[in-house]
Amino acid sequence: MHGKNLVYIIGFMGSGKSTAGKKLAAALGWDFIDLDRKIEAEAGKSITEIFSQDSEERFRSLETEVLRSLQSHVKTIVSTGGGTPCHADNMKFMLDTGVTVYIKMSTSQLVSRLLGSTGERPVLKNVPDDKLYSFIEEKLAVREKFYNKANIIIEGINLDINNLQSIIRLGAGI
After folding, report:
1. Which residue has the higher pLDDT, 17 or 168?
2. Dist CA 121 CA 48 (whole Å)
3. What is the phi/psi pair of residue 99, to 5°?
4. Which CATH number does the domain housing residue 48 bear?
5. How far is residue 90's CA from residue 103's CA, in Å, rounded to a whole number?
6. How many domains is the chain partitioned into structurally?
7. Any domain includes 123
8. 90: number of Cβ within 10 Å
9. Packing angle, helices 35-43 and 56-68, rounded to 10
């Protein structure tokens, strides 16, 4: 991991990737990129619109394209979408070009964070509240195979940014 200047924050939706990414970037004095916001800027429409007007497949294609365009960035924290590591060899790409940090949370913790905001998230749009736990549990079981390949795995509840900053500095040689 020595000398890598990109840090990718990965994890399930609602795990706090964007919040942690912004705080980490500020602590390190680095740039911050929210991959979903960058995709929206490139596409000229929201993630929800891409899903509904185009397709999830089109979104995943854009996501991979935009992710790969970031490889020349230095001193940058990138907050990814929850599914980013699970498609198109994106996890391998992130491991090859930077340091990956998985913000790990349990199904129960994610449900408590996501309950009531499912309409804002295209993947959860048609999931009723009473099915949210089983939906997250199933998705997390599939996605953790990718997430667990991260260089650094850290608990998302009460995440200490200073501790994470120290771990990254030591592990990444920055």
Report:
1. 17
2. 7
3. -105, 135
4. 3.40.50.300
5. 17
6. 1
7. yes
8. 23
9. 110
* 104 backbone φψ class: left, alpha, beta (φ>0; ψ -120 to 50): beta
Which pLDDT band holds residue 33 (cuts at 50, 70, 90)? Answer: very high
pLDDT of residue 24: 96
**C-alpha atoms less than 13 angstroms from C-alpha of 25 in its C-beta half-sphere:** 21
Residue 61 is which amino acid? S
117 is a domain residue? yes
Encoded tokens for 35: 């991959």
Q: Structure pTM?
A: 0.93
Kindly tell me the burial class for residue 133, based on how many C-beta atoms sit within 10 Å of its own C-beta (0-12, 13-18, 19 or more). Answer: middle
Q: Which range marks the domain in which residue 88 is found?
A: 6-172
Give the dihedral sign, CA 133/139/143/145. positive
Name the DSSP class of 4.
-
Residue 8 in tokens: 């990718």
Q: Under 8 Å CB-to-CB from 21, ≥6 apart: which residues?
A: 9, 32, 34, 77, 78, 79
Is there a domain that residue 82 lies in? yes
**Is residue 1 one of the residues assigned to a domain?**
no
Residue 3 scores a pLDDT above 60? no
Per-residue pLDDT of 80-131, as tens digits, reads 999 999 999 999 999 999 999 999 999 999 999 998 776 678 888 889 989 9
